[in-house]
Amino acid sequence: MTTERMNATYMKGEPLTLVGKKINAGDQAPTVDLTDSKLAPLEFTHIPGKTCILTSVPSLDTSVCDKEIRYFNKAALKFDDVEVVTVSMDLPFAQSRWCESSKSDNITAYSDHREASFGKAYGVLIKELRLLSRAVFLIDKEGTIRYSQYIPEITDQPDYDDVLSALESL
Prior knowledge:
With 170 residues, this protein is α+β, with helices and mostly antiparallel strands. It has one domain: Glutaredoxin. Helix content is 23%, strand content 32%. The chain has four helices and eleven strands. A five-stranded mixed beta sheet has the order 7-6-5-10-11. A four-stranded antiparallel beta sheet has the order 1-2-8-9. A two-stranded antiparallel ribbon has the order 3-4. Strand 6 (82-88), helix 2 and strand 7 form a beta-alpha-beta unit. The longest helix is centred in the middle third of the chain and has 13 residues, at 63-75. The mean pLDDT is 93.
């Protein structure tokens, strides 16, 4: 049975249901099935030997998501051995187009459009919209979640200072 968390997130004040249980610091990063920019299936858990800033966003084609991913793209330059991975329900073609046009060279975008595997495993799948809610996770080099931030209102930005503070402590 799949966990559903009613009123777990909001869009412009309207309550929405998230599918999947919440991921917390100390949990192992789940293995999820994603699609890469060339439409190839990809099994993703973590990036061995690197710390990962893992973000989930509703769509790269929105101003809030665009701003967030550009921020993390730039912030990643300040850290050694840090990779930024962004997951959305956008088709891989749209993700590639966004990455190219934004010149976001420090991020990798993966799509969850096929199975919503990521959305369910990380508890960010919005039942009513079949989009991903906004969240940020830090995964260490061994695949352990060290930080999670679920943004209550998906039209809001993450608390960047909190994310970077957690990243600096790793």
